């Protein structure tokens, strides 16, 4: 039985886009919500004191098992339903979480699970890392049939260790300036982030007050390589829409025309974000939080299209309550695509090569170039390389 | 052909000058919300050099246009740096303008100009004469020698000036070496050894010495209170409260309008609510005082005021755009027959306004136009982003279709200088944009707006400037004469001066 709250395609129902604010090459598009229910709230939890965090995906934090390792500057605390609004004087509102261990001069934070229930109505999650973990875990088990080409490690440990590189927000001074000078709307609950008019990320929460507090955390989050690409493009073009003077003969007309201008802006930004909203996505349930469903998803992973992965919370009536996405770089897309194709042909190299319209030797080299050489036996790779050299 | 070229030359000259005067009203070379300090200072420096090189006569006359202190100081320095003009009439006018401008500057700024003469290596006969004349005109030089010791010393050394009496030894022979008969100098000497003498000194000097004696901050603030100037009192409010000292009493009835507005905006909302009536009256009185100095009677006026997040200004100019908007609100409501204010983010009580939200100028502007105002004054930094460029389009269509006869005047008053455009950011051609530093300038810039609009010719602009020069010089001469008359032999020992920024 499938849950209707699992997203097939992202639908920004109940959300509105406002005209963008441009700072250099960064364009920020505010997302507004007209009807705020206030039964789902988000708060930031600071983890910046440890330069590295280790998240135990299975088992206890200190025991053996699958781990996710990354720099995690902050987590997000999600609470729903009736909130206890009052606290006794002197209460520590932010209890320290997880365990910190010293490793040489550094300290490492040990966290238990990506999503951790802390109270009856409260959840701690690691924003975007949740989605990234879901992405890294795609076909993580490795070959399920022991084809002769795969190395022993690949057959016994799967893809482990699977690594992807990302860019932190503060690597781009333009993003810092853009977030600093951005003027937050009163009803704003989210933001679409474009660099050189390429959609990089979308971030939407449920309540405007939460957004106002979380606005600056966007600088600490991570983005795809596209944040640094197009660095020489100094300015995103100004999109000047004009009013039609011919249609104006009274003050009322003028008012209507300005409203039309506003609508045009929203429609245009909707079009610009077309690579994320309205395309088909593959989603997987992560956690059921009362009436809300936390899930992560990714788009088609076809290398020629723009690809996003993200996490979302959908309310009982199907509204999008929370969204955070990450734009995959083209290399990351290629890797995911290769894995997807391999898995579809149950990791048989010949069949996959046929599917992709190439030869097995080429596929082997392609896997190696994509960074999956460690899955293959050395002599198989060597042979592929030699046959390439002979062929050319 | 030649006529067309001449018309074009005149147009370029007019545009350059309007741009320059506008920049001189608003720019202070400090960081703004969108622009950094470096960009601002590079931009304004270039403008100064450009105008000085091409339109020297108008450059010096800009001194009298009511521009801000920073740019007055820049003009003085640049004029002194290039040497005096050959023509005796021009030389005379330039000298008179520089001397008058220097006298009109707040003391600390004037001394800073004299000090900058040294750092910029400007040392010609005229520069020395200007410095000599300025020091000769100071009513209480011993006080200056204590309060601005390093600057006065720099000016005297650099200009080869002679100082009378004990001032020379005080500044140059080491103040420790002797006992002075001049009471303030003696107090300064004593204050290095005795705590009690501290409290006879100006606050800025006493502050460092108090640190040396290890006087607790709250005790020091309490005892120095009578010596505080008005500006220092305003400035110390918050830090005094933080240090646990009693906040110095502020005489709200004496504070200038924009300063007062900024002071109000620095308070928390509860405090503003609690003191609402008092602050409201003070702001009204302050705007009445401005209008008494520069009378302006306006008809049906609508103000479109920007209280978006960007009006919070920068670290260096905290909440200045918002402060200018609030002060303009009071000033316009006092000078207009009928008045209504339209804020971008509507506020019930103007005193409780905060910098928050996006810049949606289109909606309040539409309301203001629908109300049927004769004059619409937009106070904004010129960045409208909801939707972008809406004001430019709206005013263009309004002029084209609904008001071709220009019944409604539109003026955009901009407190923020845009370094990249070399002028305050504008809303397109249909609205005249003028720069301001303080809301007190608003009556002046409303007079200047017709040049910004482009309707008046260069000749008119020249007449306007020379009329301002004449009245300004005359006023300065009168003030100078009265000041000299009042400098009797028995001057009061400590002059309390009004710091103005």
The total count of helices of chain B amounts to 22
List how many beta strands of chain B DSSP finds: 7
Terminal Cα separation of chain A, in Å? Answer: 53 Å
The radius of gyration computed from the alpha-carbon positions of chain B, rounded to a whole number of angstroms, is 24 Å
Q: What class, by secondary structure content of chain B?
A: alpha/beta
Protein model, in words:
The complex is a heterodimer of chains A (392) and B (501). Chain A has 392 residues and is α+β, with helices and mostly antiparallel strands. Chain A has a domain at 348-391. Chain A contains 9 helices and 19 strands. In chain A, strands 1, 2, 3, 13, 14, 16, 17, 18 and 19 form a 9-stranded antiparallel beta sheet that branches. Chain A has a 4-stranded antiparallel beta sheet with strand order 4-7-11-10. By secondary structure, chain B is of the alpha/beta class. Chain B has helices at residues 2-26, 37-54, 56-61, 69-81, 88-104, 107-119, 125-137, 141-147, 149-158, 167-172, 183-191, 203-213, 217-224, 230-242, 257-265, 269-274, 276-293, 320-335, 362-371, 390-402, 442-453, 458-486, and strands spanning 298-305, 336-343, 375-379, 409-414, 417-418, 423-424, 432-435. In chain B, strands 2-1-3-4-7 form a 5-stranded parallel beta sheet, sandwiched between helices. In chain B, strands 5-6 form a two-stranded antiparallel ribbon. Chain B is globular and about 80 Å long. Chain B has 2 domains: 10-242, no CATH class; 257-456, Rossmann fold, CATH 3.40.50. The A-B interface holds A 18-22, 30, 181, 183-186, 238-243, 245, 248-251, 254-255, 257-258, 261-262, 265 and B 33-34, 308-310, 345, 356-359, 362-363, 366, 369-370, 385-390, 393-394, 396-398, 400-402.
